[in-house]
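[#protein-structures] MJ: dropping Choline transporter-like protein here for a structure pass
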Amino acid sequence: MPEEEFYGKNGEPRKYDPTFKGPIHSRGCTDIACCVLFIVAILAYVAVGILAWSQGDPRKVIYPTDSRGQFCGHAGTPLEKKPLLFYFNIMKCASPMVLLEFQCPTTQMCVAKCPDKFMTLVKARLIPSEFEYYKQFCKEGVTNQMSVPDILKGGLCPAMLTPSKSFTRRCFPALAGKDGSITVGNSSGFDDGTGTIREAKDLVDGVKNATVVMEARQVVMKVFEDYTHSWYWILLGLVIAMLTSLLFIVLLRFLAGIMVWVMIVMVILVIGYGIFHCYMEYAALKGAAGSNVTLQDLGFQTDITVYLQIRQTWLAFMIILAIVEVVIILILIFLRKRILIAIALIKEASRAIGHVMSSLFYPLFTFLLLAMVIAYWAVTAVFLSTSNEPVYKVFNETECMHSRMNCEPANFSTSAMKADCQDSECLFAFYGGETAYHKYLIGLQFYNVFLFFWCANFVTALGQMTLAGAFSSYYWAFVKPDDMPAFPVFAALGRSLRYHTGTLAFGSLILSIVQIIRVLLEYIDHKLKGAHNKCTRFLLCCLKCCFWCLEKFVKFLNRNAYIMVAIYGKNFCTSAKDAFFLLMRNMIRVAVLDKVTDFLLFLGKLLIVGIVGIFAFFFFSGRVKAFEDTAPHLHYYWVPILTVVVGSYLIAHGFFSVYAMCVDTLFLCFLEDLERNDGSAERPYLMPESLRKTLNKKNKTPPAE
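AK: finished. structure tokens for Choline transporter-like protein:
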């Protein structure tokens, strides 16, 4: 292809400019309209947060709610010492309507402890001491002078009590197995309080449906409790990850070549140990009872530790790690020559970071801003989800025209509904509402998610542009560090916020739109999981794949556009076009240098996550005897492990992003240098001598002093 035709398709190369000294200081504000839009959106986001905080009540998630809509065990209330929820008749939870309405049609009240003995109201009424015990599980107003029929007619007490155990702050019958049969109180039958002998297995359906209703809350509460018991150990693990990342970066600064090879070997060894550990667990479960159950037969279980008791889980882990190990080794074999060039680029990045040491601590600022964004989003989401009002409905045992209609508990006893249906009750059903605020609640949640993406992407973009401005000032300095600003990071941060807030908002808005579309596609896919339309499923899968690729491309384009904005101070579209054409004119170099370097830095992140993750696993799982007494006792030990692993990756990514941004910035500056200069005395290359040797480039004569 002729050179003119090639450049015609991919833009014109940069011309030599003797006045160009690096990032342009004389620049103006860019993408002002998007800056205004972003400020308005932030103000609206604050308004949504204030509205949510004024309407929401997180207690609805934390505490169980009785039939009056009161919170059990909430401090500062009359029910402070009654943290458990008791069902008058758990067998009513066996109704299929429970799964539709998410509420058992029986009176529920807060109690101090669950009943620990079996008795009926009829028998308890005959013995004063037993009746005093029984009244703990009755409504207020029950006296010793009241007869059993009057108590039952008024719905003041349950007809019977069964031995129960607390499960997620709710009292469920303590059912046991005996010779293959279900028993309660060591008996396979019980008197239901009306003189009818019922089988203990009749309680199973009630418990099962009540458990289904509360299953999501059970998991959330257990995870929440695990966090409360292990948060300080999680924090310590994240601090260790931060110190390890910082140490790795510092060593990379002075021993780049050695550290890269150490990193490669360590990653292979860590993954190899993972394969060995999975094999040992797989072999240890051989012959164990129930270990040969397949994952398909086991189905979904809220207790993740169940999966670790079957051999197929460890076999799957072993295969996955083996594939990853083989892929990494093959990549290293085929790219062994390219790795040497990438190491040279990392060495140069290390020198740049040595001149801009404050850049190593910039990820802490980004992490702080991201933590604020995440905290604001999470708190707003919780308050929005709990800003509904309590809804009460009519529940009855016999046919009633008012069944499941809304009611007011305060005046229900004197209402026409009660007169028409004598056995009906007005009970708390769920949280909802029919006001304009409640109708648009889903829209506010969507806005909360969208602004979370936009703000998080804005913070990330600000970090990229700031670091790009600092490192480009290093590259284009003729005499380093004399020609560099005194505080390159602060100077670049000031330029980015003063002139290019709109550009940052524009790029992050495009990325956020793509991400929110991906979230909607995942939501639709979740809703259509039961559908058998293969065409729809295939189309949805294609859309998800396309938008995943689009997100990766937008991130790549934004990153390079921010580098060009940091250097030349132009708007987003112009900078994105210039960066894209510059990369297209040097496509081979992009594939050889930039991507191989990214792969090496990814191995570094993988190494840190692997090391911290292995230590977290042995600590929280109690596999090491030295930590058995120190480690907290948890429902799910995978909760802190997963948190530490994800947090370690984010921390390592934050520190390595400095290197990645430095490499990308130097790479674009290097490509610009090749187009602007030719190595002659009048137009010498500004790239360091080590990089010139690696790329077989040299200045014809030394530049004039």
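MJ: nice. DSSP finds 23 helices and twelve strands in the chain.
AK: one more thing. The longest strand covers residues 425-432.
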